[in-house]
TrEMBL record:
GO molecular function annotations of the record: non-membrane spanning protein tyrosine phosphatase activity
GO CC, one annotated term: nucleus
Classification via InterPro entries: Prot-tyrosine_phosphatase-like (IPR029021), PTN12/18/22 (IPR047170), PTP_cat (IPR000242), Tyr_Pase_AS (IPR016130), Tyr_Pase_cat (IPR003595), Tyr_Pase_dom (IPR000387)
Record-linked Gene3D superfamilies: Protein tyrosine phosphatase superfamily
SMART domains, A to Z: PTPc, PTPc_motif
Name of the protein: protein-tyrosine-phosphatase
Keywords: Hydrolase, Protein phosphatase
Residue ranges occupied by any Tyrosine specific protein phosphatases domain in the UniProt entry: 76-150
EC id: 3.1.3.48
Alphabetical list of PANTHER family matching this protein: TYROSINE PHOSPHATSE N18, PUTATIVE-RELATED, TYROSINE-PROTEIN PHOSPHATASE NON-RECEPTOR TYPE 18
Top-rank taxon, per record: Eukaryota
Domain spans labelled Tyrosine-protein phosphatase: 1-159
Family as reported in the entry's similarity comment: Belongs to the protein-tyrosine phosphatase family. Non-receptor class 4 subfamily.
């Protein structure tokens, strides 16, 4: 959820969850945490007929409508949290803001680019513009403003830096293992 219920005095989203520990028709709300000033995490248990499903809702509260967050780290961390909570479970990731265009489009673009990067499937001729235009075929007005479009570039740079840093750390760990195995550890010392 990339919006608040009320922004600039206008209702932007209905509160579709219950107050803490208060069951409602669509299921009981089971807990809320705030891992940082920008994020609220809610654990919901949703029941319909005989089926019960656990849902984790992440709300990013510092993204103004028709604007961008002050930095990219917060939204990238939110996406990392959402991905890690899924683990190996192929549950769908659902994203929304107030209209489902600007903020939602940015998050969808970043998530898609992240998946390409992790799968090492960045195609030749990759273009953020092409990603946004493809999103707009599915949801007109996805990524509404120039600032949001530029935010994607900044976030992708930050994402690449994180990815390269993790890759570099993995590379050096592998080098340490190779160095240990080649340094004679466990070999007899010649006399």
């Amino acid at each position: 959820m990339a919006c608040r219920e009320i922004e600039m005095g206008k209702r932007k989203c209905e509160c579709y969850w219950a107050a803490a520990l208060q069951p409602v028709v669509f299921g009981p709300f089971t807990g809320e945490t705030k891992p940082n000033k920008d994020v609220v995490v809610r654990n919901l248990t949703v029941s319909y007929q005989q089926e019960t499903q656990s849902v984790i809702q992440y709300q990013y509260t510092s993204w103004p409508d028709h604007d961008v967050p002050s930095d990219t780290a917060g939204i990238l961390d939110l996406l990392d949290r959402a991905r890690s909570s899924c683990g190996a479970d192929p549950s769908p990731l659902l994203i929304h803001c107030s209209a489902g265009c600007g903020r939602t489009g940015v998050i969808c673009a970043l998530d898609y680019i992240h998946d390409l990067l992790v799968a090492t499937q960045i195609p030749k001729g990759f273009s953020i513009l092409k990603v946004v235009l493809e999103l707009r075929k599915q949801r007109p007005s996805a990524v509404q403003t120039q600032d949001q479009y530029q935010f994607i570039f900044s976030a992708v740079i930050h994402m690449l830096e994180r990815f390269l840093q993790k890759s570099d750390q993995l590379y050096w760990k592998q080098q340490e293992v190779r160095s240990l195995s080649c340094s004679g550890v466990g070999r007899e010392v010649p006399s």
